[in-house]
Amino acid sequence: MKLSITALLFVLLTFSTSLLAQSRIDSLLPVRGFCIAAPQPKQLDTFLKFINEELAPRQVNTLILRVDFNYEYDSHPELRDSIALSKREVKKLVKACQKNGIRLIPQINLLGHQSWASTTHKLLSVYPEFDETPHVKMPEKYVWPNPDGLYCKSYCPLHPGVHAVVFALVDEICDVFEADAFHAGMDEVFYIGDDNCPRCSGRDKAELFAGEVTEIRNHLAQKNRKLWMWGDRLLDGKTTGLGMWEASFNNTHRAIDLIPKDVMICDWHYERPDQTAIYFAMKGLSVLTCPWRKPTFAVSQTQDMLRFRRTATPPMKERFQGMMQTVWSGAGPFLDEFYGKKVNPEARENTASNCFRTLFDEIKRIETTP
Protein backbone atom coordinates (compact mmCIF):
# COMPACT_ATOMS: atom_id res chain seq x y z
CA MET A 1 0.00 0.00 0.00
CA LYS A 2 2.84 2.38 0.87
CA LEU A 3 4.49 1.56 -2.46
CA SER A 4 1.29 2.35 -4.30
CA ILE A 5 0.95 5.72 -2.57
CA THR A 6 4.59 6.51 -3.28
CA ALA A 7 4.16 5.55 -6.91
CA LEU A 8 1.01 7.65 -7.14
CA LEU A 9 2.76 10.66 -5.62
CA PHE A 10 5.61 10.22 -8.08
CA VAL A 11 3.20 10.14 -11.02
CA LEU A 12 1.37 13.23 -9.76
CA LEU A 13 4.64 15.09 -9.21
CA THR A 14 5.90 14.16 -12.67
CA PHE A 15 2.59 15.18 -14.23
CA SER A 16 2.55 18.50 -12.36
CA THR A 17 6.15 19.24 -13.35
CA SER A 18 5.30 18.50 -16.97
CA LEU A 19 2.30 20.83 -16.85
CA LEU A 20 4.38 23.61 -15.33
CA ALA A 21 7.05 23.19 -17.99
CA GLN A 22 4.41 23.24 -20.73
CA SER A 23 2.78 26.32 -19.24
CA ARG A 24 6.14 28.10 -19.09
CA ILE A 25 7.10 27.42 -22.72
CA ASP A 26 3.60 28.36 -23.91
CA SER A 27 3.91 31.64 -22.03
CA LEU A 28 7.35 32.34 -23.49
CA LEU A 29 6.57 31.35 -27.09
CA PRO A 30 2.94 30.46 -27.80
CA VAL A 31 3.75 29.19 -31.32
CA ARG A 32 6.74 26.94 -31.96
CA GLY A 33 6.39 26.01 -35.59
CA PHE A 34 7.94 24.00 -38.39
CA CYS A 35 7.15 24.52 -42.08
CA ILE A 36 8.11 22.13 -44.87
CA ALA A 37 6.78 20.65 -48.11
CA ALA A 38 4.38 17.78 -47.51
CA PRO A 39 6.14 14.44 -47.94
CA GLN A 40 5.59 12.30 -50.98
CA PRO A 41 4.04 8.87 -50.27
CA LYS A 42 7.42 7.11 -50.32
CA GLN A 43 8.70 9.49 -47.60
CA LEU A 44 5.66 9.23 -45.36
CA ASP A 45 6.94 6.65 -42.86
CA THR A 46 10.20 8.53 -42.31
CA PHE A 47 8.30 11.78 -41.91
CA LEU A 48 5.95 10.23 -39.34
CA LYS A 49 9.03 9.07 -37.45
CA PHE A 50 10.35 12.64 -37.62
CA ILE A 51 7.10 13.99 -36.16
CA ASN A 52 7.09 11.50 -33.30
CA GLU A 53 10.79 11.45 -32.47
CA GLU A 54 12.00 14.95 -33.39
CA LEU A 55 9.18 17.50 -33.52
CA ALA A 56 7.21 16.28 -30.50
CA PRO A 57 10.17 16.06 -28.04
CA ARG A 58 11.18 19.59 -29.05
CA GLN A 59 7.66 20.79 -28.16
CA VAL A 60 6.89 21.90 -31.70
CA ASN A 61 3.18 22.69 -31.55
CA THR A 62 2.47 23.84 -35.13
CA LEU A 63 3.29 22.06 -38.39
CA ILE A 64 2.68 23.75 -41.73
CA LEU A 65 2.79 21.40 -44.69
CA ARG A 66 3.08 22.91 -48.15
CA VAL A 67 0.71 20.62 -49.99
CA ASP A 68 -0.07 22.54 -53.19
CA PHE A 69 -1.02 19.78 -55.67
CA ASN A 70 0.51 16.90 -53.70
CA TYR A 71 -2.91 15.47 -52.81
CA GLU A 72 -5.45 13.29 -54.62
CA TYR A 73 -8.13 15.97 -54.86
CA ASP A 74 -11.66 14.79 -55.53
CA SER A 75 -13.02 18.26 -56.28
CA HIS A 76 -10.50 18.82 -59.08
CA PRO A 77 -8.67 15.58 -59.90
CA GLU A 78 -7.19 17.27 -62.96
CA LEU A 79 -5.00 19.30 -60.57
CA ARG A 80 -3.39 16.33 -58.82
CA ASP A 81 0.35 15.84 -59.09
CA SER A 82 1.31 12.57 -60.79
CA ILE A 83 2.53 11.31 -57.41
CA ALA A 84 0.28 12.56 -54.63
CA LEU A 85 -0.82 11.74 -51.09
CA SER A 86 -4.04 9.81 -50.67
CA LYS A 87 -6.67 10.61 -48.07
CA ARG A 88 -5.58 7.57 -46.07
CA GLU A 89 -1.98 8.80 -46.05
CA VAL A 90 -2.99 12.29 -44.98
CA LYS A 91 -4.97 10.82 -42.10
CA LYS A 92 -1.76 9.19 -40.83
CA LEU A 93 -0.22 12.67 -40.64
CA VAL A 94 -3.32 14.00 -38.89
CA LYS A 95 -3.26 11.18 -36.35
CA ALA A 96 0.46 11.66 -35.58
CA CYS A 97 -0.02 15.39 -35.04
CA GLN A 98 -3.11 14.96 -32.88
CA LYS A 99 -1.32 12.38 -30.74
CA ASN A 100 1.53 14.83 -30.13
CA GLY A 101 -0.57 17.98 -29.62
CA ILE A 102 0.64 19.54 -32.88
CA ARG A 103 -1.62 21.90 -34.82
CA LEU A 104 -1.53 20.86 -38.47
CA ILE A 105 -1.99 23.60 -41.10
CA PRO A 106 -1.95 22.87 -44.86
CA GLN A 107 -0.67 25.34 -47.45
CA ILE A 108 -1.50 25.92 -51.09
CA ASN A 109 0.30 28.78 -52.81
CA LEU A 110 -2.37 31.27 -53.81
CA LEU A 111 -1.90 34.27 -56.11
CA GLY A 112 1.85 33.96 -56.74
CA HIS A 113 4.24 31.01 -57.16
CA GLN A 114 2.15 29.44 -59.93
CA SER A 115 5.36 28.51 -61.74
CA TRP A 116 8.98 27.80 -60.95
CA ALA A 117 11.97 28.23 -63.27
CA SER A 118 10.80 26.82 -66.64
CA THR A 119 7.85 24.86 -65.22
CA THR A 120 4.26 26.09 -65.03
CA HIS A 121 2.46 24.49 -62.09
CA LYS A 122 -0.84 22.67 -62.29
CA LEU A 123 -3.30 25.54 -61.86
CA LEU A 124 -2.12 27.58 -64.83
CA SER A 125 -1.23 24.51 -66.88
CA VAL A 126 -4.80 23.25 -66.65
CA TYR A 127 -6.49 26.66 -66.54
CA PRO A 128 -4.28 28.99 -68.63
CA GLU A 129 -7.10 31.53 -68.73
CA PHE A 130 -6.32 32.34 -65.07
CA ASP A 131 -2.80 33.57 -65.95
CA GLU A 132 -2.16 37.22 -65.02
CA THR A 133 0.51 37.47 -67.74
CA PRO A 134 -0.34 35.08 -70.60
CA HIS A 135 1.87 37.15 -72.90
CA VAL A 136 4.94 36.12 -70.86
CA LYS A 137 6.00 32.75 -72.27
CA MET A 138 7.88 30.22 -70.17
CA PRO A 139 11.50 29.92 -71.33
CA GLU A 140 13.18 26.64 -72.19
CA LYS A 141 16.09 27.67 -69.99
CA TYR A 142 15.27 30.01 -67.11
CA VAL A 143 17.68 32.75 -66.03
CA TRP A 144 17.37 35.67 -63.64
CA PRO A 145 17.26 38.56 -64.32
CA ASN A 146 15.32 38.37 -67.58
CA PRO A 147 13.63 40.93 -69.86
CA ASP A 148 10.12 39.88 -68.78
CA GLY A 149 10.82 40.23 -65.06
CA LEU A 150 9.63 36.63 -64.74
CA TYR A 151 10.25 35.06 -61.35
CA CYS A 152 7.04 33.10 -60.74
CA LYS A 153 3.71 33.35 -62.53
CA SER A 154 0.59 34.63 -60.73
CA TYR A 155 -3.07 33.99 -61.30
CA CYS A 156 -5.30 36.97 -61.95
CA PRO A 157 -7.18 37.75 -58.71
CA LEU A 158 -10.01 39.38 -60.68
CA HIS A 159 -10.66 36.49 -63.07
CA PRO A 160 -14.32 35.53 -62.53
CA GLY A 161 -13.60 31.79 -62.41
CA VAL A 162 -10.43 31.49 -60.36
CA HIS A 163 -11.86 31.45 -56.85
CA ALA A 164 -14.39 28.72 -57.54
CA VAL A 165 -11.48 26.45 -58.41
CA VAL A 166 -8.92 27.42 -55.77
CA PHE A 167 -11.45 27.61 -52.94
CA ALA A 168 -12.67 24.11 -53.75
CA LEU A 169 -9.08 22.93 -53.22
CA VAL A 170 -8.73 24.98 -50.04
CA ASP A 171 -11.94 23.58 -48.54
CA GLU A 172 -11.07 20.02 -49.45
CA ILE A 173 -7.53 20.16 -48.09
CA CYS A 174 -8.65 21.86 -44.86
CA ASP A 175 -11.33 19.20 -44.38
CA VAL A 176 -9.02 16.24 -44.90
CA PHE A 177 -6.34 17.77 -42.66
CA GLU A 178 -9.01 18.60 -40.06
CA ALA A 179 -7.49 22.09 -39.97
CA ASP A 180 -8.70 25.22 -38.22
CA ALA A 181 -6.29 27.40 -40.24
CA PHE A 182 -4.91 27.55 -43.77
CA HIS A 183 -1.65 29.00 -45.10
CA ALA A 184 -2.10 30.78 -48.44
CA GLY A 185 1.57 31.50 -49.19
CA MET A 186 1.29 34.81 -51.13
CA ASP A 187 5.02 35.56 -50.93
CA GLU A 188 7.22 37.02 -53.67
CA VAL A 189 4.30 38.19 -55.84
CA PHE A 190 6.03 40.07 -58.66
CA TYR A 191 3.21 39.84 -61.20
CA ILE A 192 0.10 41.71 -60.06
CA GLY A 193 -1.95 44.42 -61.73
CA ASP A 194 -0.15 43.85 -65.02
CA ASP A 195 -0.58 46.58 -67.63
CA ASN A 196 -1.70 43.99 -70.21
CA CYS A 197 -4.32 42.33 -68.00
CA PRO A 198 -7.84 43.29 -69.20
CA ARG A 199 -9.15 43.13 -65.63
CA CYS A 200 -6.25 44.42 -63.49
CA SER A 201 -4.62 47.00 -65.74
CA GLY A 202 -4.42 50.42 -64.13
CA ARG A 203 -5.62 49.25 -60.73
CA ASP A 204 -3.77 49.97 -57.49
CA LYS A 205 -1.51 46.99 -56.76
CA ALA A 206 -1.88 47.39 -52.99
CA GLU A 207 -5.66 47.31 -53.32
CA LEU A 208 -5.48 44.25 -55.58
CA PHE A 209 -3.25 42.43 -53.12
CA ALA A 210 -5.35 43.43 -50.10
CA GLY A 211 -8.49 42.43 -51.97
CA GLU A 212 -7.17 38.93 -52.57
CA VAL A 213 -6.03 38.55 -48.94
CA THR A 214 -9.47 39.67 -47.76
CA GLU A 215 -11.26 37.38 -50.22
CA ILE A 216 -9.34 34.36 -48.94
CA ARG A 217 -9.72 35.39 -45.30
CA ASN A 218 -13.49 35.86 -45.66
CA HIS A 219 -13.90 32.51 -47.36
CA LEU A 220 -12.03 30.73 -44.56
CA ALA A 221 -14.03 32.62 -41.91
CA GLN A 222 -17.23 31.01 -43.16
CA LYS A 223 -15.99 27.78 -41.57
CA ASN A 224 -14.23 29.45 -38.62
CA ARG A 225 -10.79 28.97 -40.12
CA LYS A 226 -7.94 31.47 -39.86
CA LEU A 227 -5.68 32.72 -42.63
CA TRP A 228 -1.90 32.51 -42.33
CA MET A 229 0.43 34.03 -44.95
CA TRP A 230 4.00 35.19 -45.57
CA GLY A 231 4.58 38.85 -44.79
CA ASP A 232 7.12 40.04 -47.37
CA ARG A 233 4.65 41.75 -49.74
CA LEU A 234 3.46 43.94 -46.85
CA LEU A 235 6.90 45.52 -46.35
CA ASP A 236 8.31 48.43 -48.34
CA GLY A 237 11.51 47.10 -49.87
CA LYS A 238 12.72 50.48 -51.12
CA THR A 239 12.28 52.62 -48.02
CA THR A 240 13.60 49.94 -45.66
CA GLY A 241 16.42 48.72 -47.87
CA LEU A 242 15.13 45.14 -47.49
CA GLY A 243 15.09 44.68 -51.26
CA MET A 244 12.72 43.05 -53.73
CA TRP A 245 12.75 39.50 -52.31
CA GLU A 246 12.13 39.97 -48.60
CA ALA A 247 9.91 43.01 -49.25
CA SER A 248 7.96 44.70 -52.04
CA PHE A 249 9.23 46.83 -54.90
CA ASN A 250 5.84 47.03 -56.66
CA ASN A 251 3.88 49.00 -54.03
CA THR A 252 1.88 46.13 -52.53
CA HIS A 253 3.24 47.13 -49.11
CA ARG A 254 0.43 49.62 -48.54
CA ALA A 255 -1.94 46.65 -48.35
CA ILE A 256 -0.87 46.25 -44.71
CA ASP A 257 -3.38 48.97 -43.80
CA LEU A 258 -6.16 47.39 -45.86
CA ILE A 259 -6.22 43.74 -44.78
CA PRO A 260 -8.17 42.24 -41.83
CA LYS A 261 -6.30 42.25 -38.52
CA ASP A 262 -6.93 38.59 -37.70
CA VAL A 263 -4.49 37.33 -40.35
CA MET A 264 -1.37 35.58 -39.00
CA ILE A 265 1.81 36.94 -40.57
CA CYS A 266 4.82 34.67 -41.05
CA ASP A 267 7.70 37.16 -41.20
CA TRP A 268 10.77 35.69 -42.90
CA HIS A 269 14.26 37.15 -43.16
CA TYR A 270 17.07 34.85 -44.20
CA GLU A 271 20.03 37.11 -45.01
CA ARG A 272 19.75 39.48 -42.02
CA PRO A 273 17.80 39.12 -38.74
CA ASP A 274 15.74 42.26 -39.39
CA GLN A 275 13.24 43.10 -36.65
CA THR A 276 10.17 43.75 -38.77
CA ALA A 277 7.96 41.74 -36.41
CA ILE A 278 7.60 45.01 -34.47
CA TYR A 279 6.16 46.72 -37.54
CA PHE A 280 3.54 44.01 -38.09
CA ALA A 281 2.55 44.05 -34.42
CA MET A 282 2.24 47.84 -34.45
CA LYS A 283 -0.14 47.48 -37.39
CA GLY A 284 -2.35 45.22 -35.26
CA LEU A 285 -1.30 41.91 -36.81
CA SER A 286 -0.12 38.75 -35.06
CA VAL A 287 3.30 37.67 -36.25
CA LEU A 288 5.80 34.81 -36.21
CA THR A 289 9.51 35.18 -36.97
CA CYS A 290 10.77 32.58 -39.45
CA PRO A 291 14.43 31.55 -39.91
CA TRP A 292 15.68 29.12 -42.55
CA ARG A 293 19.34 28.07 -42.76
CA LYS A 294 21.53 30.37 -40.66
CA PRO A 295 21.70 29.10 -37.06
CA THR A 296 23.21 32.28 -35.63
CA PHE A 297 20.28 34.26 -37.01
CA ALA A 298 17.81 31.77 -35.56
CA VAL A 299 19.29 32.33 -32.09
CA SER A 300 19.24 36.13 -32.34
CA GLN A 301 15.71 36.12 -33.81
CA THR A 302 14.47 33.93 -30.95
CA GLN A 303 16.05 36.23 -28.40
CA ASP A 304 14.47 39.20 -30.18
CA MET A 305 11.03 37.58 -30.10
CA LEU A 306 11.33 36.88 -26.38
CA ARG A 307 12.46 40.44 -25.73
CA PHE A 308 9.52 41.80 -27.74
CA ARG A 309 7.11 39.77 -25.64
CA ARG A 310 8.82 40.69 -22.38
CA THR A 311 8.99 44.45 -22.97
CA ALA A 312 5.83 45.12 -24.98
CA THR A 313 2.55 46.58 -23.77
CA PRO A 314 -0.12 43.91 -23.09
CA PRO A 315 -1.91 44.39 -26.45
CA MET A 316 1.37 44.24 -28.36
CA LYS A 317 2.69 41.24 -26.43
CA GLU A 318 -0.12 39.00 -27.62
CA ARG A 319 0.70 39.80 -31.25
CA PHE A 320 4.26 38.46 -30.94
CA GLN A 321 3.32 34.82 -31.32
CA GLY A 322 6.61 32.96 -31.58
CA MET A 323 9.02 31.25 -33.97
CA MET A 324 8.76 28.97 -36.99
CA GLN A 325 11.55 27.09 -38.73
CA THR A 326 11.15 27.03 -42.51
CA VAL A 327 12.53 24.45 -44.93
CA TRP A 328 12.70 25.17 -48.66
CA SER A 329 13.66 21.80 -50.02
CA GLY A 330 11.33 18.88 -50.40
CA ALA A 331 10.69 16.73 -47.36
CA GLY A 332 12.92 13.96 -48.78
CA PRO A 333 16.10 16.01 -49.17
CA PHE A 334 15.57 17.59 -45.75
CA LEU A 335 15.14 14.21 -44.06
CA ASP A 336 18.24 12.88 -45.84
CA GLU A 337 20.18 15.89 -44.58
CA PHE A 338 18.76 15.67 -41.07
CA TYR A 339 19.53 11.96 -40.69
CA GLY A 340 22.99 12.32 -42.24
CA LYS A 341 22.32 10.35 -45.42
CA LYS A 342 23.42 13.23 -47.65
CA VAL A 343 25.72 16.05 -46.58
CA ASN A 344 26.57 19.25 -48.41
CA PRO A 345 30.09 20.12 -47.19
CA GLU A 346 30.01 23.52 -48.92
CA ALA A 347 27.07 24.67 -46.76
CA ARG A 348 29.03 23.95 -43.56
CA GLU A 349 26.82 24.91 -40.61
CA ASN A 350 24.33 26.90 -42.73
CA THR A 351 21.75 24.22 -43.43
CA ALA A 352 18.05 23.99 -42.66
CA SER A 353 18.54 20.91 -40.48
CA ASN A 354 21.27 22.57 -38.42
CA CYS A 355 19.20 25.72 -38.11
CA PHE A 356 16.25 23.63 -36.91
CA ARG A 357 18.36 21.94 -34.25
CA THR A 358 19.91 25.22 -33.13
CA LEU A 359 16.58 27.05 -32.98
CA PHE A 360 14.97 24.47 -30.74
CA ASP A 361 18.11 24.04 -28.64
CA GLU A 362 17.87 27.76 -27.96
CA ILE A 363 14.18 27.49 -27.09
CA LYS A 364 14.98 24.60 -24.73
CA ARG A 365 17.79 26.61 -23.12
CA ILE A 366 15.49 29.55 -22.56
CA GLU A 367 12.73 27.35 -21.21
CA THR A 368 15.01 25.78 -18.59
CA THR A 369 16.76 29.02 -17.58
CA PRO A 370 15.35 30.35 -14.28
Automatic annotation (TrEMBL):
Using the UniProt record, name the top-level EC class of this enzyme in a single word. hydrolase
Q: What is its EC number?
A: 3.2.1.52
Q: Which Gene3D superfamilies match?
A: Glycosidases (3.20.20.80)
Question: What GO MF annotations does this protein's record show?
Answer: beta-N-acetylhexosaminidase activity
As given in the record, the signal peptide range reads 1-21
Q: Which segments does the entry list as coiled coil? A: none
Q: Which keywords does the record carry?
A: Hydrolase, Signal
Q: Which GO terms describe its cellular component?
A: membrane
**Boundaries of each Glycoside hydrolase family 20 catalytic domain copy?**
84-294
An example GO biological process term is: carbohydrate metabolic process
Which InterPro entries does UniProt cross-reference here? Beta_hexosaminidase_sua/sub (IPR025705), GH (IPR017853), Glyco_hydro_20_cat (IPR015883)
- Which reaction does this chain catalyze? Hydrolysis of terminal non-reducing N-acetyl-D-hexosamine residues in N-acetyl-beta-D-hexosaminides
Q: Where is the catalytic site?
A: E188 (proton donor)
Similarity section: Belongs to the glycosyl hydrolase 20 family.
Under PANTHER family, the record lists: BETA-HEXOSAMINIDASE, BETA-N-ACETYLHEXOSAMINIDASE
**Protein name (Swiss-Prot/TrEMBL):** beta-N-acetylhexosaminidase
Species, as recorded: Spirosoma taeanense
